[in-house]
Amino acid sequence: MASQPNLIADTVLNTFRRLPKRFKPRNDGLRREWVPLAGIVLKRDKIDNEDSNQSQECVALATGMKCHPHAKLPSFHGCVLHDWHAEILAIRAFNRFLVDECADLAAGTLGKGSKWLQWRRDARQQQPFELQPNVSIHMYCSEAPCGDASMELTMAKQEDATPWESNDATEVSNSDEELLGRGHFSRLGRVRRKPSRPDAPPTLSKSCSDKLALKQCTGLLSALTAQLVRPEDVYLRTLTLPASEYVPAACERAFGKTGRMAPLVANAGVQDRWKASGLSFRPFLVDVTDREFEFSRRDLMAQDGEADEPVASNRSCLYTPRQNEVLINGVLEGRKLHDPKGASLASRRSMWASAHEVARMVGSPAASSLLERCQYKDLKASETLEDRERVKSDARRLALRGWVKNDGDEDWFLEAEPS
Predict the structure, then answer these.
(1) Angle at which helices 86-107 and 348-362 pack, to 10 degrees?
(2) Which residues form the signal peptide (predicted)?
(3) Which residue of the set 87, 143, 171, 178 is catalytic?
(4) Total domain count for the chain?
């Protein structure tokens, strides 16, 4: 029988393999493309004498490896994805899956009910839905998350491991409040922005390592989904990486209790304050698989070591059992960047519109802010999210120092047509 990490990896990889060709990187003999893959698996844990072949399903996966520069964000009006690195897009796809499950439960169209979600038994002043009991959440990534968890791997790939020089003051400052990019390899345990070429426009999108580290505090729910689904149980239990991408010291430093997140463990006052909201610091276990993704750069090179090195794919895909799409530059393939019809199903605007409809159907007090006629920035600052925002603030102040918010795409109304 395959090991648990291999089962998680196989569940994601096999789901991807069943997707149509247009969801995959090009490999036509003339052009070979590679791309990172990430997926989220829901698994029903064994109960009493239940069959050891527990039910599990890949409910979200994504490929991708790019993000937009900070200067572009104000023109997006919630229609364009800021960051579509595979790990982050997979989490957005997972939230899309949950909102769609909520919608069908609210509409009563699921017959016997959802396989993974249920109405909350005690819905007084609470989110109306919750994950079913004995369900755990697992993630597979074909690459080590960019940022702190992959710094040793990044260094090893350089012909010259000397950090890139930069004229950017945030790169060379000695302050603890900086936001590093790909350079300055010796400075480990730090919050970093997404890696890019030195001549690329600056981005304030944090690395996947940083975003996953913060998810250990808030859980996987977005601000929108957290007003519909009870957040206490929606935490990642394991993160599975290929053996070739796993550096134990790097993962412990990036995510573990003894690494940069240690101040959260040591500060009992913070943990007590978080308990009121049901949130806490819950580090996931990093598992290792011997499976490789056939569109990883490593696997393509191993298939034909004499061929030209594969190039990065500009195509990204998003999948849930209910919906899927192909994206380029954070919008639907074939659509222009500022075309409202090109909005991804996981974009801010699409997610708010769907969550708004669920809130209208269920009439939950906790989800009432989703119905308010306000700008997106006001929604995220609503009273129902105060505890969640406090957890994020504490985590950034104590453990993820130097986190700079990637603001700029908040000043828009759901009802207004994007200009």
Answers:
(1) 20
(2) none
(3) 87
(4) 1
